[in-house]
Amino acid sequence: MADAPALELRGIEKFFGPVHANRGVSLSIPRGAIAGIIGENGAGKSTVMSIVYGLYAPDGGEILIDGAPVKIGSPRDAIAKGVGMVHQHFMLVDTFTVLENVILGAEAGGMLKPSLAKARGELKRLEREYGLKVDPDALVGTLPVGEQQRVEILKALYRGARILILDEPTAVLTPQETDQLFRILQALKGKGTTVILISHKLREIMAVTDLVYVMRHGQVVAERNTADTSREDLAELMVGRKVRLDLDKAPANPAAVALSADKIGVRGKGGVALLDNVSLTLRAGEIVGIAGVSGNGQTELLEVLSGIRAPSSGTLSVGGKTFAAPRFATPAQMRVLGVAHVPEDRHRYGMCAGFTASETSVLGIQRDAPFAQRGLTNYGAMTQHCDVLMERYDVRPRRPQQLAINFSGGNQQKLVLARETDQEPKVLLVGQPTRGVDIGAIAFIHRQLVALRDGGAAILVVSVELDEVMALADRILVLYGGRIVGEVAGGRADERTLGLMMAGATA
Amino acid sequence: MSARKLPLWVDIGVLPVANVLIALLIAGLVVLAVGASPLDAVKGMIDGALGSSEGIGYMLYYTTDYIFTGLAVAVAFHAGLFNIGGEGQAYLGGLGAGLAALALDHGVSPALAIPLAIAAAAAVGALWAAIPGYLQAYRGSHIVITTIMFNFIASALMVYLMVNVLIAPGSMSPESREFTAANIPVISDILTHWGYAVDTSPLNLSFVLAIACCFVVWIVIWHTPFGYEVRAMGFNPNAAVYAGVNPKRLTVIVMCFSGALAGLVGVNEILGVHHRLLLDFAGGYGFGGIAVALMGRNHPLGIVLAALLFGILQQGGTELSFDMPQITRDMVVAIQGLVILFSGALANLPRPLLEAPFHWLARRRTPAEEA
Amino acid sequence: MADLAALILATFAATLRVATPLILCAMGGLFSERSGVIDVGLEGKMLAAAFAAATVAALTGSPWAGLAAAICVACFMALLHGFATITHRGNQVVSGVAVNILASGLTVVFATAWFSSGDRTPPLADSARFMPLPGGFNLLTYVALASVAATWWVVTRTRFGLRLRAVGEAPAAIDAAGISVTWLRYRALLICGVLTGIAGTYLSIAQNANFSRDMSAGQGYIALAALIFGKWRPVGAFGACLIFGLLDAVAIRLQGVAIPHVGEVPVQLIQALPYVLTVVLLAGLIGKAIAPKAIGVPYEKEH
């Protein structure tokens, strides 16, 4: 069966309880091709590939590898059939070395010593053949994200993967690291490995794949040769209607300084500088974007500016008050001064598992009138408030008494945004504003932020999506290694330059 | 993941009952294993607890203690804290009440002595819980281990104090002298005074205090911003910080609240019943409180119902042990363990069985909706 | 001088004797916790095992049968804990506390029902017990010492140990490698059951001659504290157990001794010392001891 496709799926079905995650998914990927599977969040693309890797069992349908039907009941079976997967959230043990991570599950026998020796030799070979260079004795937790990803790829190759699935691999990479990854993928293709790329980033799919499958609502809705299609075409197929990919934005009119941070420093475990000498100003009526790969200090910056975390050094001035380390502002104080905060990770900071949407709608302002009067909570006022927020941001379903976690990711995000913008803040800090939100709502949220800016708010947007930062920001600051390494005006920003700064190579 | 697939009434009403039934079923098996008849045991228990006014009185007296410790554990649970120190906090709460009563015994009117003694019980209980709370918040010490250690330390402390310091002169057993100023009126006395013929029992007005505490807890946890912040911290400490909470301070405050409630057991026992300080008056209520809180889903209404059940078990068990010597107080402890297991860790065990009919209904509806 | 040497030797011996159950429980707890399952139930397993050992030894006259029964019972309770926390993803601390209370109650219920001496089992003849070997130490004490070495070796040098550590830090990595998280954790709990079973046996038929109510007296919790203080490593936990043993050995000697200006040391203070020390150790930790990353969180596949 020389011409048989490397991977073929026929009619894959998958239910998660009542949710129909995969409906009759069929696709065929020729050997040695780089295929892309695109779709919005929840389209089912990760699910179907997890089935191919044996993490889930399909409720119906067939899988064929090299033309022969196979039964894949667990990742062991998948690995035995030559399927490897690099997950979106790395499946690595941070406290183990690279070598230990590579052999985990593929050890040669009950004792560790021989397994480690064998793996060491094999890693050297893989480094020669594919250019995947990593220090075998480094602790994975100390490696930069790009190298951790390489360890994941090495794991798959060590186990003899002929089909390599990568799930949203570029989410955590700079443009330059992405190029490096694509070079590795081309090298793999050259050796006959089949690569499947799951992504929602149209630009990259267009750059590296040979063919593309589009999924929507659990089904495959289109197949295209990459050479015959375009970003707009793919976007429309992903969503089902024409989508505006650009944002109309009037030029900004920055006014008075609303927030000023001076020489902020944050020290982490072992004295590592998570933020180093960071200074920035936010003016009313402007959007400042922070670009950078996740893990370069964005989280700490937002934590400091919102009062959640006290910096080790530096000062912060807002609303006429100045705070200096170590007796810093608290989130409550910052709120009083008119600073609102949409957290990067809404599950970590922005919501509580057991609260209803109504209770979530006052998180942070629970002691303010009218939600609390004479020491008692006013649930009526809370519900009314939630209704207003849901109406304004089209949060569905419109049920304030529903548990917040039972809303979809996009609706949760809209609720949090609605809550924070409703406070008519003087300064709005936003982290990853459209994480988990589908394309239609992204445009809506971006428009809301611009409207807020036009109303006189100073907005700080932190995002790992370079497209988003470039679309929204009037001024872009790049964060690398905890430092601001560059500043570019919004109109004059270009991806190449920003990418170089994000990778630490300042021109 | 706690998406509720069941309607609220099943989740809050049927599931907890199912949990308890499983626990009691297994308890029944244990009764069989020791050579007694479970049905006879149940009959004997219900008779002993509810069959006479004396039995009911004793039953409600035990229930009072279980309400206090149940509330204590529940309040801490809402903040995400596991207070296992109820035994020690109840014990030392009694010490506080007793010391206050002894000190105020000379010419102080009950109207003043009783509230002060109650406050003393709450304060000492609060203190005994605050220390492990502080250690957890500021030093990261595992609160489960420290509260248990404090139970043992409280025990040793009480023995030392009773034997060496507070023992009534000339007494054979480690007990203090009796006091009267801070005695809390016994309900059977009150009812008899009003003309109802009721057998005496230790049930006293502390029961009313316990019910009042239920209301206080209900209002504080669900109807104040403070309670909102406590629940936020229990669900997600990071989000609580975001909402303006200082989690370390709140941990200590909540533990104080929790310990104070547990300490009120001392009010019931020392001021209401024994009228002197002695040893081992708080035995089993601390752990029983955990069972009561879990069974009652940390809600005052559920706690009262669960406390009633345990009151029946304890009083019924005591009466039963005269006829069935194999059933001792330890059987009640074992049942507490079973309830904690099935209402706490295995609370979701009956879920698939209960969800099945609803899933079936949903599947029947879905094809029509999809069309 | 010879007196001092004799005193030191005697103290050392007493330390080891007291520390034996602590060491066994701590090693057992190590397997559990390194695999990601909090095990507060060491106390209950040890207590239930003690009862089983004393009962079966009394009925059969054989300490080995008692040991076997103790291990079976402790493993059963470990499986119960596993069923609640691994299979049903229940709260691990609540489950552990339940196991402890259940053990506390059931052991006395059965003791009262099956034997006529109230809440204890009948005293055992020497032949039904593990008596000290020539040299002064009990066989089970040697087993405890060996368990430290064995634990260290298994955890750091074998495939099972690698996977055990992985499942406690990043269960998703184990799952993605096609290894069963559930089975790995159950095995860890079973090992814990075996070790706590031996600990319980020591309590009732080696160190003493019968089982009595709540005879574990919090030692399971102290072992857990020792494990935490030892940063979940075999040698560290072993050291912490020795500290407790030493303290107890020294404290017993202080009983009845008059300290100048203070007076006689009250016996209750000596009894309370291990518990106070536990609190002090947990409070005085320099920096936070870093638990296995995935501990306490039931594993669920992400959708």
Fold topology:
The complex is a heterotrimer of chains A (507), B (371) and C (303).
Chain A: E1 7-16, E2 19-29, E3 34-38, H1 45-52, E4 60-65, E5 68-70, H2 75-80, E6 83-86, H3 98-103, H4 112-130, H5 145-158, E7 163-167, H6 175-190, E8 194-199, H7 202-208, E9 211-216, E10 219-225, H8 231-239, E11 257-267, E12 273-283, E13 286-291, H9 298-306, E14 313-318, E15 321-324, H10 331-336, E16 339-342, H11 346-350, H12 357-360, E17 372-373, E18 376-377, H13 379-393, H14 409-422, E19 427-431, H15 439-454, E20 458-463, H16 466-472, E21 475-480, E22 483-489, H17 495-502
Parallel strand pairs in A: 3-8, 3-9, 6-7, 7-8, 13-20, 13-21, 16-19, 19-20
Antiparallel strand pairs in A: 1-2, 1-4, 4-5, 9-10, 11-12, 11-14, 14-15, 17-18, 21-22
Helix pairs in contact in A: 13-14
Chain B: H1 8-33, H2 38-50, H3 53-78, H4 86-103, H5 110-139, H6 143-165, H7 187-193, H8 206-223, H9 225-235, H10 237-242, H11 247-263, H12 265-274, H13 285-295, H14 300-323, H15 329-345, H16 351-370
Helix pairs in contact in B: 1-15, 2-3, 2-14, 3-8, 3-11, 3-13, 3-14, 4-5, 4-6, 4-11, 4-12, 4-13, 5-6, 5-11, 5-12, 8-9, 13-14, 13-15, 14-15
Chain C: H1 2-34, H2 42-60, H3 63-87, H4 92-114, H5 139-157, H6 159-169, H7 171-176, H8 181-207, H9 219-229, H10 234-254, E1 258-259, E2 263-264, H11 267-283
Antiparallel strand pairs in C: 1-2
Helix pairs in contact in C: 1-5, 1-8, 1-9, 1-10, 2-3, 2-4, 2-8, 2-9, 3-4, 3-8, 5-6, 5-8, 6-8, 9-10, 9-11, 10-11
